Amino acid sequence: MRALRFDPSEGSTLVGLQAVGLCSNVDRYVTAPLLVALAHQFHASLTQTALVLSGNLASYGLTQIPWSIVLNRLGPVPVMRLSLIGAGTSACCAALAPSLASLVMARVIGGAFLAAAVPAALLYVGTRLPGERRRHAFEGIVAANGLGIVIAVAIATIAVLTDVWRVGYLGSGLLLIAGGLLLFGLRLPNQRYTLSDVGSMAVRIDHLAAKQAPRWGHAKRSLRPVLLAMVEGVVILGAVVVLPAVAERSGLSRVTSAGTIAVYGLAMPATSMLLRGFQMSFTLAVRTRIACMLLLTIPIAAAALPPLAALFTTAALLGASWSVLHPALQSAATGAWVSRAPLVVSLFVSALFLGSASGSQIFASIAQNGGPMQIGLAGVAGSGVLYLMERLTRRLQ
What we know:
Layout: H1 8-29, H2 35-42, H3 46-62, H4 64-74, H5 76-94, H6 100-114, H7 117-126, H8 131-162, H9 166-186, H10 195-206, H11 215-240, H12 243-249, H13 254-277, H14 284-296, H15 298-304, H16 307-335, H17 341-369, H18 372-393
């Protein structure tokens, strides 16, 4: 198979979109290493402080449909700029929060702003590139997301070392604002999406192949990535955000505990590079099975390794699972029903982050009294649900 090539304008566009994913992930993951510090600061339980995470993720998911209307009216480029700058301002306000309730509120508002950035980027790629090039672009964005997680851990580590959790949100906010300003500098071409516009893009991208199918067939195909994304959010995103808290409760230092998120972030681009280097192009069903197999090995690592190695291995396996599965889900979501791409992308991201919000609360409850083995066993149960969901939704194809 020949390597995929992008023209220069396409490359500069992807740089901008990767910056969106990077900045979004910095804001999303900066809280996880700070959960125990926040619990101590506000004299609250881990389950209560997890509301800072789950509230942010829930508002991210619940505001997808309203943002899809704005995307149709304004196009993705101005929406990405507004989203990053608004979320950055909210993060800076979170750094000044005097109480846990005000911090949760600031993070809820920040999640509502940030909710538009990644869907706009997905729509930008999904309506401009055909199938294989689209998946290749998504893998590049996932790799940038991994780098964003590493930067989030670096910012959180500075906050932990200085014993000032507010530094984490201030650093995240300033980076988001810088990312929004960067999009002004790149001058990405904008496109307002009406249903007829997106339908014409579908003709250019997919050569009328899918356009001849009945609308109900498109709708059924769109449900598959949406349902799988919800389970993915519960199992992978829900588990990874509590790993630092589990590590700290296992007796590791706060800096070392934050390293679990960094390992997760590094595993994502490493896995993407492996897939691209060997030019592996698996179907969604095969990628789902690989992700399930990776998740099934987590309790084995927890049983065989000491706590530090077990937690780092768990983080790496979660990152590899995400990197294997998520680009295929993104590609399926943007390509299943191109004439309704804004709606499908909104439902996809909404399902992913509502699942993540639920998962973070579930795993926080487990982490309150459990350790790496309990997290691993919950991951095994989640992998079973993921596999069953893939089997059930295959009928929708």
